[in-house]
Write a sequence for this structure.
């Protein structure tokens, strides 16, 4: 048993039974179907996807499964961008019933050492050695999961839930793989998400309010194609902006402030394109948006007809938005990302008619450095892409959502 344990976690969320406590002594005695305590470790490599996925998972485990979650995260500034309530100078705080510890150094485990029932190591980040040693001393070993990055490749199903014994301690780590196909852990999807989207889509008033709030302007004319652009720097962007400028119908471009903003500014001959800016050339009108919290980002996807997304979490959100999307995959050395792009296309695009499938692949490839994007070609197949987006959302939902799949697996191990 670990030497010192603290009972000092903030109160459990309302869904959690009140007998829950976080001392290891108490945890070993409490029924496993009580409030499961979970520690989630997240090292931010870059951008927002690492913490974006962890924060979403933590909120779901808390609000939908009644778990008591504590996140260790090493970059509170990145976290604050998508969780504005966070106070970056605090080393420990609670937001939405979730305890957030600033993981200040690799050895840091909080002020006092506590080990949870379920320990999630996100994306292979290394747990503090002292914490692993305490896991091994715990009367009942915690369920130890390594949450991996999302990939649509076929091998993922073979590796999902594979176990790896620790070389020194009597501990076993299980690899939990998100995926787009059967036999994987699926992807995150909140229970309320479809209803929230349906409400947004059904309410002209909500959409008007969104436009006013996000852009400071009224919703555009219904003839306009609304496009959101959340992407990395991209050499193909100028060509696409030119095609949108020359489009026969109006294009309204919504650009969250970030890595592409410089290129947008350059295209419009502006020094910068900060949130609140607007620019116009030909048929193209662009609006720079402030970075919002995660629910705010979903609303942006719903307000658009087509979404350009990137990385991991926005890629998933675009699928739940049930609109056509273009994926700027996170680039890796030696083009290792390209097979992943094709694997996602294989799932997503397979049932499309051959010409539409080829057009989608051409456009996604061009957006990821192979060829030039052809907007007219993409537009030509828009109706097929729209139908496919709706069907795909339903197919993907059949895998179950990742938080639910993970919770179920963890509970089966705690029995
Ligand atoms: O930010 P990303 O590029 O993140 C990542 C990381 O780079 C990571 O290291 C890498 O491994 C991974 O990609 C593949 O893209 P992603 O994953 O889409 O994360 C962005 C998050 O930001 C997502 O949770 C949505 C959120 N977001 C908001 O909350 N508000 C916003 O206004 C916007 C634009 C995004």
């Amino acid at each position: 048993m670990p030497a010192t344990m603290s009972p000092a976690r903030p109160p459990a969320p309302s869904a959690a039974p009140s007998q829950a406590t976080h001392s290891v002594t108490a945890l070993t005695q409490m029924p496993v179907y009580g409030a499961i305590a979970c520690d989630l470790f997240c090292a931010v490599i870059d951008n927002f996807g690492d913490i974006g996925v962890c924060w979403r998972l933590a909120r779901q485990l808390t609000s939908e499964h009644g778990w008591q979650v504590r996140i260790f995260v090493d970059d509170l500034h990145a976290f604050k961008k998508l969780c504005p309530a966070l106070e970056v100078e605090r080393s420990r705080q609670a937001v939405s019933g979730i305890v957030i510890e600033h993981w200040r150094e690799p050895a840091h485990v909080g002020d006092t050492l506590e080990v949870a029932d379920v320990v999630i190591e996100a994306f292979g980040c290394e747990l503090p050695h002292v914490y692993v040693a305490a896991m091994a001393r715990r009367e009942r070993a915690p369920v130890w999961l390594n949450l991996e990055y999302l990939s649509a490749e076929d091998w993922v199903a073979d590796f999902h839930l594979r176990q790896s014994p620790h070389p020194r301690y009597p501990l076993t780590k299980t690899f939990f793989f998100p995926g787009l196909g059967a036999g994987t852990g699926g992807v995150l999807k909140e229970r309320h998400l479809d209803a929230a989207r349906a409400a947004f889509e059904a309410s002209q008033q909500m959409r008007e309010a969104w436009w006013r709030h996000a852009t400071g302007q009224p919703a555009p004319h219904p003839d306009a194609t609304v496009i959101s652009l959340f992407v990395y720097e991209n050499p193909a962007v100028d060509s696409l902006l030119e095609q949108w400028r020359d489009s026969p119908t109006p294009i309204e471009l919504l650009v969250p402030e970030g890595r592409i903003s410089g290129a947008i500014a350059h295209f419009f001959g502006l020094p910068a394109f900060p949130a609140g800016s607007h620019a116009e050339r030909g048929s193209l009108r662009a609006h720079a948006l402030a970075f919002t919290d995660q629910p705010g980002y979903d609303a942006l996807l719903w307000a658009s007809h087509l979404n350009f997304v990137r990385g991991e979490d926005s890629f998933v959100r675009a699928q739940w938005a049930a609109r056509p999307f273009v994926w700027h995959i996170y680039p890796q050395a030696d083009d290792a990302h390209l097979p992943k792009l094709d694997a996602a296309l294989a799932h997503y695009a397979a049932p499309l008619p051959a010409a539409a499938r080829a057009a989608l692949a051409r456009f996604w490839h061009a957006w990821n450095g192979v060829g030039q994007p052809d907007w007219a070609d993409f537009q030509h197949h828009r109706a097929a892409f729209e139908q496919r987006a709706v069907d795909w959302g339903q197919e993907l939902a059949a895998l179950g959502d990742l938080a639910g799949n993970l919770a179920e697996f963890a509970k089966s191990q705690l029995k």
Q: What stands out?
A: Residues 21 and 27 are 7 Å apart (CA to CA). Residues 193-397 form a domain with the Rossmann fold fold (CATH 3.40.50). The mean pLDDT is 92.
